[in-house]
Amino acid sequence: MKLMSKISKAGALAASISAAAPVWAQTALIKAPDAAAQAGMVNKGDTTWMLVSSALVLLMAIPALGLFYGGLVRSKNMLSVLMQTFMIVSLVAILWVVFGYSLAFTPGSAYVGGLSKAFLAGVGVSTFAATFSNNVYIPEYAFVIFQMTFACITPALIVGAFAERIKFWPLMLFCGLWVTIVYFPIAHMVWYWSGPDFLADNPTDMGLIWGWGALDFAGGTVVHINAGIAGLVGCLVIGKRVGFGKENMAPHSLTMTMIGASMLWVGWFGFNAGSNLEANGLAALAFMNTFVATAAAALSWTLVEQLRHGRPSLLGAVSGAVAGLVAVTPAAGYAGPMGAIVLGLIVSPVCYTFVSYVKGKFGYDDSLDVFGVHCVGGILGAIGTGILADPSLGGQGWMDYTVFPAVAGTFDMGAQVITQIKAVLVTLVWSGGVSLVLFWGIDKIFGLRPSSDDERQGLDQTSHGENAYNS
Amino acid sequence: MKLIIAAIKPFKLEEVREALTAIGVRGMMVTEIKGFGLQSGHTEIYRGAEYEVNFVPKVRIEVVVADGLADQVVTTITKTARTGKIGDGKIFVLDVAAAVRVRTGETNDDAL
Fold first, then answer.
1. Which of A129, A208, A394, B14 is exposed most, by the fewest CB atoms within 10 A?
2. Are the beta carbons of A359 and B48 separated by less than 8 Å?
3. ipTM for the assembly
4. Inter-chain CB pairs, A–B, below 8 Å
5. Number of folded domains in chain A?
6. Is B47's CB within 8 Å of A319's CB?
7. pLDDT (tens digit, 9 = 90+) per residue, A178-199?
8. Any A CB within 8 A of B29 CB
9. Which residues, in sequence order, are CB contacts of A230 under 8 Å at separation 6+?
10. Is residue A469 part of a domain?
11. How far apart are CA B112 and CA B67, in angstroms?
């Protein structure tokens, strides 16, 4: 009881700090500041942190994800994985600045934004983006870039589900359509709002799921559940690898996989702590949660394997770490560190069950466990956020931004968990449904799979005319 | 001339090479192979995907010697490569029709 009351006090204190005016402010908070006023509310530390975080998240996509996935496929397909991740990032970066940012982060409907900032119109060195604190802003370019890295990595996650058996250009077409129809709207629904200095005057200027009060700090729904369910649908439409279940498809380099997983962990500090949009104690909390949840999950998976197989594997340890990272993503700025540890301990046995038993039982070839780790881990994290954000469990609670200045809201765990579940369901249905149509349609028109001869020879040679290794 | 092909456990290669050079063998070819005899493989598990790996890494040594040296080579390899456990390997002896030293053009026993 004593410990709990200490933890809840700490939670309430942290919540009040993030709503307080900047320490150096001599004047009262300004409601609905114009760009000129916002220019005086920008801090070089916050800007630096956002630019560094963006670089860290790009590193997560290239090369970390490429190495993590690539090490798990056979050597004849290594290059294809590297190429797919690299080129998806390149494609989506362009789509983002041309129309993606606008669709995600401008007012429009509750479901998607408009095209007012297409081609980054109106975005310049003197325009700013809101943070989660009243009267604190970051350069808009920094926000565009940070969000761009998220848009780039999310479709790249999907490719693991049908690794070793997808044609390159149909995949690129799928990714371009998927980010447009699925990612940009869901990012809008979960993350778009007019900002803490404007919402009180426009209390409906926000995305659908944001308006419900769903808490998703860094993208449990927007990134992981989104990509995870698309991956599952993809691997079901495309079918299993030739020789699946009969031939040896062991990873060709768990060394690469471990390097990739380690870089993912480090980069994820940018992903989660950068999602705070400011460099302060809350960013440090998100950093902390990203550290300990991951460590707990790696330990947890290792223990599960020791009990199940009598030997702990490196692949299990890094898979546990990634599952922990996925689960803590929505919770990073809401849970307390002890709650994050519990989340990490729980996610590993759950994901382990999906990748080892459920996958085998239903017989689908989710080659790199995109569904089992990202979707399942994301769902657990998203719902877990509704529990762990509770200040009585050391969480941060939620901020009521419909008043100016923002105040801490009253936390109702039951209601919050239901809201989280609604957010999860919308994501699953929208992403799963649209992905099904896209995969099926592209397959009918262009064909998604290479011929089985090409698949046998290896995508490196047949899709790209190269070998990953020439000795 | 005889061609002696031996499959042995990889860690025995250095010992066998030393013993053969000691009895007068002046050349050999070595390849890394996979194989099985009575020794069974093992199971690997990757995130729930189990693979029966039936092949075990071995080293293949090929030596061509004059007829008179062949029996001694076979005995030497047998003695040096033996551990007494399953998987020690096998040795085969074949006849060789001709041999040539590329540098000088010497043939048959002069080439060995």
1. B14
2. yes
3. 0.82
4. 26
5. 1
6. yes
7. 999 999 999 999 999 999 999 9
8. no
9. A158, A161, A178, A182, A431, A432, A435
10. no
11. 11
